[in-house]
Here is the input.
Amino acid sequence: MMALDWRKTLIISLLLASVSINCFASNKNDPPSSTAIMVDVPVRILGVGLTVVSSAIFVAASPFALISGSLEDTWNALVIEPLEFTFTRPMGKFDDWKTNPTAETVALELEN
Here is the structure.
């Protein structure tokens, strides 16, 4: 019975090792993978709906934001950011989509 247990453990370990995803460092300038782009399509469809919902929330919150003097911040958070995330973000890029690629290049050139 003991021999069967270590064999099961060995087989399960080998299967998990063969299925594991490779972790590697990527450069920010690397193109997105096809999987990231396929995942991005339904995310953008949801983004359109959430943009509509957040715009409606902005309409409801705008009197309070106007009184408190934070109308511009509320506008940016509830309308502009969802619009940019949905329509201007490159396909498959979920991290650092707000950063300016030319600013990164200049910073990298200054480091070297």
